[in-house]
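USER:
Class, as today's exercise, take the chain set out below, and explain how the chain folds.
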Amino acid sequence: MADDQRSQWLASDEEREEALRALRQALVDGRITTEQHSERVSKALAAQYVAELENLTTDIPHGERLPVRADNAALLRAGTQQARAICGAPH
């Protein structure tokens, strides 16, 4: 399926949550200001379509594009369940 077709879909709660996680991380990382975060969160919560959510996060890394921090990469290589839980990796 083409991404442009998906962009026209109605947004799900999970897609909104994914956008909110990306915005929260961008704030923590200093990529966006508190004011930008607040504005984008309001827009994300009101978004009806996937394209609206995509527009809020195109300038920040998220999802598969989110870089893995070096310390997290070492934990993931260890392969323990605890390390995976700490890093949020799938089990």
The chain has a mean pLDDT of 79. The chain has one domain: 3-87. The radius of gyration is 15 Å.
